[in-house]
Amino acid sequence: MKDFIIPGLDGAPLFSDRDYGTPARRSQTMVTLTIDGQSVTVPEGTSVMRAANTAGVTVPKLCATDSMEAWGSCRLCLVEIEGRRGTPASCTTPVAEGMVVHTQTDKIRRLRQGVMELYVSDFPEQTILGAANRDNKLQEMAAAVGLKQVRYAAPEGTKLANHVEAADAEGNANPRWLAQDVSNPYFAYDPAQCIVCNLCVRACDDVQGTFALTIEGRGFESRMSPGMAGDDYLSSDCVSCGACVQVCPTGALLEKSVIELGTPSHSIVTTCAYCGVGCQFEAEMQGETVVRMTPWKHGKANHGHSCVKGRFAWGYTTHKDRILNPMIRESITDPWREVSWDEAITYAATRLRDLQGRHGTKAIGGITSSRCTNEETYLVQKMIRAVFGNNNTDTCARVCHSPTGYGLGRAFGTSAGTQDFDSVEHTDVVIVMGANPTDAHPVFASRLKQRLRKGAKLIVIDPRRIDLVRSPHIKAAHHLALKPGTNVAVVTSLAHVVVTEGLFDEAFIRERCDWDEFQHYAEFVADPRHSPEATEALTGVPAAELRAAARLFATGGNGSIYYGLGVTEHSQGSTTVMGIANLAMLTGNIGRPGVGVNPLRGQNNVQGSCDMGSFPHELPGYRHVSQDATRDVFEKLWGTVLDKEPGLRINNMLDAAVEGTFRGLYVQGEDILQSDPDTRHVAAGLAAMDCVIVQDLFLNETANYAHVFLPGSTFLEKDGTFTNAERRINRVRKVMTPKNGYADWEVTQLLANAMGAGWTYTHPAQVMDEIAATTPTFAGVSFDLIDEKGSVQWPCNELHPEGTPIMHVDGFVRGKGRFIVTEYVATDEKTGPRFPLLLTTGRILSQYNVGAQTRRTSNMVWHDQDVLEIHPHDAEVRGIKDGDRVRLASRSGETSLRAFVTDRVSPAGGLHHLPPSGHAGQRRHHRLLGLGDQLPGIQGDGGAGAPLQRPDRLAGGLHQPGRAISSHRDGRGVTCP
Amino acid sequence: MAAPNNIAKLVTMANQIATFFATQPGTTQAAEVAGHLKAFWEPRMLQALYAHVDAGGEGLSPLVLKAVERLRQPVA
Ligand code: SF4
Ligand code: SF4
Ligand code: FES
Question: Record's InterPro entries (chain B) (predicted)?
């Protein structure tokens, strides 16, 4: 039907599209059998259907797929097995040694035709017999079994009961007929085409873990139904992941884009540009038009699954708001003037050079983007270091990454998570801290939930009752609902229990860690002031609960820790990360599958943009600019002398701008005004500059302060790589010509060359070759290797030629693991009579970041406005009712939001804000928040409180000492990193 | 010369760094703070901090002052 293309490879596809019908088995014991005369050897436990596919024999099937365990309901896959009676279903029959199987006999053919005839007799005729303009396996199977006729006929003068016709010829309504459900913006459900194969229900349960679908009615009356009676897709629990649509064999569930455009003609594998999970997709195309995105079964992060954003929310790429022509203006009060690329680039280059001439080499800088590819980020920092001639490069990923980089760097010696996502299949106890995977990292959450349903235990550390705490068939063993800002105290207290109750893994510590440092640390944590009983008043976590959680983690088998922005975006973020590392080392949970310390990254390429040398003090590969040997490598290649002093971080660029020593900035793919915590500070800094160059898809808020606007390109329009949260380098492949004329890396090259660089890159693969040649952890990486393997996890070099799924296996990268003392330091800001409430912020599954992309898609149906969660008690004493608009203020600013009264936030001071509906909401709320962790250099100037009130009455107050990430579902919806 | 607002920020930042290292065992805290400042702060920021120290160093923790002293010692 469709060609499978991995550009750059000729010949046969490396990754087969074949659906083996049932999942692979891992047994070491092999079984040999004969299928249609062919001998085949497969692991014990494999189904006959899968074995047949392995031998290249396709057995007809309707209700089986290799992403799920078999169910055995359609009876189309039956086979004959010598020496056995009957015709067993091949999908549910395991192989046995010496078995002789026949998949095609006269008997089987007759039976299969009978089965198909029955299905087809109650199916919209035009769909089976008409042109194949839809994805319809039923049609394919009818052909495969040789169905020629449907013999069911009603007795004279009557009509057969059916689900297909809305009314009979006389206009009498057919009670069995159900209208199509088109409530979901991206796909439609036509009950008339449902054959009750159960695949969708099981995809929702087993793969996605949402349990939104059921089979309603019995026998002939039965049909799949979303939610409870009376629900449609939109009002049900459905989070629109699309897994059910993907498995539906008949087109009963079908993408609206396919209904509108018809089936795709070719597909290209690429990587989602939303979150840090890094799902891979087949972009299914007609010419240069995307028809649909289908999660790629060979994608190692997602294994064929995805969330609503990656699969459906790509409409922004062709949105009318995109700016496609460069624009310039003399001053930010002038109107924009559309100009040619040539003029815009020359204008920008001349201005930047002029500023350097008048104010010095260090008067300009640039910001890289964690939304752009590794190659693009590498080129931006290269331009800044080699062409601008300074180290004034930074990235918004700082906020998300720095505490991890610094904390794990000090403890283990690398700035990245230790595991691959597959590791979760081997974990026994999971700590999820300050993260809300079901909303922010949905595909990882689905995999985690699969493991939890199989019996792994869960400990949630979060001020808010995130969905994972209790969701269908999952209940956290412990929810430590700490007060915001007390992460360090809780982590240290957990370690206290492990150490004082003698639950630590001494053998591991002696072998792998610095024993002297351990002893210091043990003495520190054993101090009674760190006991759960002593910290309870401060953290709000009941001592007994904390003790039980610590015991479970230390003794429950493989223990893994996953954490998010609720840990890092906080004034003691680095210290918490070190505390987490301590906990993992104490319990010996490092260096094998099922364990480890794993930051869940927010944006798609946070990991990559940091790896690529975006920070002002680090060259690619986290090597300090003061290292002569490292600079030497780049100086030789780039033919220029590099600055050995660190450059300015974003906030310091802005400060220097206000002071007048910093005058020009190139911003690629970031809206620093919206995503930076202190808007006024950013605005003042930008306004003070003489040349701000913004490169983006849309006229963002930062562009209000820009003199040059360079149109950006989407992930669909360029080649390159993204690195996900598991250090996995995934290929991004161009599926259409850039609507703006150039991929982002080309624009950077144009600017660099206009400033005299003389670069001659013609493809991002050459940039990756340069990265490999200069950066030891990437030494083995090339586009060819990624094309061949599908993806590669760094470090990839001589020692690890195929990459490194799990780190620190035989020893820590830095040698001995370091235990670091983690003293809790109270945040400067506290609640008090004027500001009694604590504000945290969270994510919504359907929306991403500040919403620039997702609010330009139909995802808006799930979350069209920002919401403030407040505990019933806090609401009541302030006279606030569910749905009221409340005014919320802090020392840094104020905003008004819709209240959602819920006990998932804590009483006595828990407020939770769920951005972003986009627009000004996110910006306003950012004004309320101060944050800062000076260890790795995240700056904040301590935001904080003011009253919370209904517009007509003053009530309460607000404060925010840190941010915790979480989620929300306002009755129906889904929820974004 | 840094604006007063920015100086206040630099003081907060430096103190926050010192707060962490002050909790670490051993006797190398001042050296650690000095090393951190050198590694992460751009020269303009360091100069502003030095100038503030020369102007009395108001608000800076003793550990920051010690670290600055080390940083300003000519490398032996
Ligand atoms: S799209 Fe909705 S109903 Fe379908 S599998 Fe996903 S969550 Fe379940
Ligand atoms: S947003 Fe994240 S989870 Fe969703 S499809 Fe994209 S990479 Fe996967
Ligand atoms: S595919 Fe085996 S019973 Fe349906």
Answer: Formate_DH_dsu
Residue A516 predicted with pLDDT over 90: no
A492 — pLDDT class (breaks 50, 70, 90): very high
Task: Identify all chain B residues contacting A680, using CB atoms and an 8 Å cutoff.
Answer: none
Among residues 29-58 of chain B, which lie with CB inside 8 Å of chain A? Answer: 36, 39-45
Q: For residue A827, name the pLDDT band (cuts at 50, 70, 90).
A: low
CATH number of the domain that residue A888 is part of: 2.40.40.20
Q: Residue A493: inside a domain, yes or no?
A: yes
Q: Which ligand is nearest to the CA of A722?
A: 2
pLDDT in tens, A432-448: 998 888 888 899 999 99
The pLDDT tens digits of the residues spanning A581-630 come to 999 999 999 989 999 999 887 788 888 888 899 999 999 988 889 889 99
Work out how many CB contacts closer than 8 A connect A with B.
71
Residue A204 lies in a domain: no
Average pLDDT over chain A reads: 82
Q: Which secondary structure element, helix H or strand E, spans residue A927, and what is its range?
A: helix A919-928
Ligand nearest to the CA of A78: 3
Ligand closest to the CA atom of residue A308: 2
Query: Which segment of A32-46, A360-374, A687-701, A917-931 scores lowest on mean pLDDT?
Result: A917-931
Domain edge (last residue) among A579, A599, A619:
A599
* pLDDT tens string A518-564: 888 998 999 999 999 999 988 889 999 999 999 999 999 999 999 98
Token pair listed for A725: 């949260």
pLDDT tens readout for residues B6-19: 888 888 888 888 88
| Beta bridge pairs of residue A667 | A367, A694
Select the residue of A646, A820, A821 nearest B40 (Cβ to Cβ): A646
Residue where a domain stops, chosen among A575, A599, A623: A599
Q: Using a 6 Å CB cutoff, which residues line ligand 3?
A: A 61-64, 72-77, 89, 91
Range of the domain at A913: 837-959
Interchain CB distance below 8 Å, A825 and B19: yes
Give the closest residue to A599 by CA, choosing from A425, A472, A723, A732. Answer: A723
Encode pLDDT of A855-886 as tens digits: 777 777 776 667 777 878 777 877 788 888 87
Residues A475-485: what's their mean pLDDT? Answer: 87
DSSP secondary structure letter of residue A104: -
C-alpha distances in angstroms, B8 versus A428, A655, A942?
48, 12, 12
Do A910 and A958 touch, CB atoms closer than 8 A? no
* A212 C-beta closer than 6 A to ligand 1: yes
Contact flag B9-A942 (C-beta cutoff 8 Å): no
Given a contact cutoff of 8 angstroms between Cβ atoms, the answer to whether A374 and A608 are in contact is yes
- Round to whole Å and give the CA distance between A353 and A350: 5
Domain count across chain A? 2
- CB-CB: which of B2, B23, B39 is closest to A624? B39
Amino acid residing at A370: S
Q: What is the DSSP letter of A817?
A: B
Q: How far is B68 from chain A (nearest CA, A)?
A: 17
State the Cα–Cα distance between residues A786 and A797, nearest whole angstrom.
13
Interface contact B20, partner A, CB < 8 A:
yes
Three-state secondary structure readout of chain B: CCCHHHHHHHHHHHHHHHHHHHCCCCCCHHHHHHHHHHHHCCHHHHHHHHHHHHCCCCCCCHHHHHHHHHHHCCCC
Q: From atom 8 of ligand 1, which residue's Cα is the shortest distance away?
A: A204
Q: CB distance from B76 to chain A under 8 Å?
A: no
Residue A850 lies in a domain: yes
In a domain, A944, yes or no: yes
Q: Evaluate: CB of A895 within 6 angstroms of ligand 1.
A: no
What would the DSSP string read from start to end of A656-721?
HHHHTS--EEEEES--HHHHSS-HHHHHHHHHT-SEEEEEESS--SGGGG-SEEEE---GGG--EE
Global pTM?
Answer: 0.85
